[in-house]
Design brief:
CATH superfamily: NAD(P)-binding Rossmann-like Domain
Strand order of the largest sheet: 3-2-1-4-5-6-7-8
Structural class: alpha/beta
Order of helices and strands: EHEEHEHEHEHHEE
Number of helices: 6
Helix content: 25-40%
Number of domains: 1
Largest sheet: 8 strands, mixed
CATH class: Alpha Beta
CATH architecture: 3-Layer(aba) Sandwich
Radius of gyration: 17 Å
């Protein structure tokens, strides 16, 4: 896939070695984008050979900034921020330490801020806008017990994207230099991070797969999010999506003993 000047279109996925980010990265690569992944672990398995990888820990600010500088040496067609730190387990606020809180803020919120600040210039092209996809969560709408740090950091991240969306809105639909979209899963997603928090023998049959985000990712690769600037989309297990206002996400909160 090339831009209006015949140059290869590039994309970046922060947190793209596994989970939803990997689903987006694979779909973008299959759509013809030159995809770079920033993550702690190397992408593995089917499709990994299509992805470039720069080892990155978002809590290492200097290395994170260096890698973003490398990726943004050329214009970007798409950026996805999917990095997340849930915490070791669901626990009451009184049982959570400051170190966990700081890591959630560092990854979930400051990581997003850093990515936006470094990539918006590389995405901004009047007449040929890039797209920024932020992976959100139902916890933004359903704060619940045992998830105080995760809920607070994800809600703040969503508000940050909403604010930047208004700043990048141009003079109306079709005039944006960058299009910003948020998407979240309709249910739990089977990811390595979630599996680390579940007991042996847990039944994941009702969980979504990261590939459920592939149809939306392909749409964004082809259209750069035309008509979707500022949207909050709920993606279901079948790969279809709808605005949050039409279908509020189901709460995944549960009692914490």
């Amino acid at each position: 896939m090339t831009d209006q000047n015949g140059n290869r279109r590039r994309a970046l996925v922060v947190g793209g070695s596994t989970g939803i980010g990997r689903g987006v990265a694979d779909a973008w690569a299959r759509s013809g984008l030159d995809v770079t992944v920033l993550s702690r672990s190397v992408p593995a398995g089917d499709g990994a050979d299509r992805l470039r990888w720069l080892p990155t820990d978002l809590t290492d600010g200097a290395r994170f900034a260096e890698n973003l500088a490398l990726v943004t040496e050329h214009p970007l067609h798409g950026v996805c921020f999917s990095a997340v730190h849930y915490g070791d387990r669901r626990a009451h606020f009184r049982d959570c330490g400051e170190s966990e809180w700081r890591r959630q803020i560092e990854v979930n919120l400051h990581g997003l801020w850093t990515t936006l600040s470094r990539t918006l210039p590389a995405l901004s092209r009047p007449g040929d806008p890039g797209v920024f996809l932020g992976i959100s969560s139902e916890v933004v709408y359903n704060a619940g017990p045992g998830r105080s740090g995760y809920a607070a950091s994800k809600a703040a991240a969503s508000a940050l994207l909403d604010s930047v969306t208004q700043e990048e809105g141009g003079r109306g639909p079709g005039t944006e230099a960058v299009r910003i979209i948020q998407a979240l899963p309709a249910a739990m997603v089977d990811t390595p991070g979630i599996r680390r928090r579940r007991p042996a023998g847990f039944d994941y049959s009702a969980y979504m797969e990261p590939a459920s985000f592939a149809p939306l990712a392909r749409e964004l690769a082809l259209t750069a999010g035309a008509g979707l600037h500022g949207a909050h989309l709920v993606v279901d297990g079948g790969g279809t999506w709808s605005p949050v206002g039409e279908r509020l996400p189901v709460s995944q909160s549960r009692a914490v003993s």
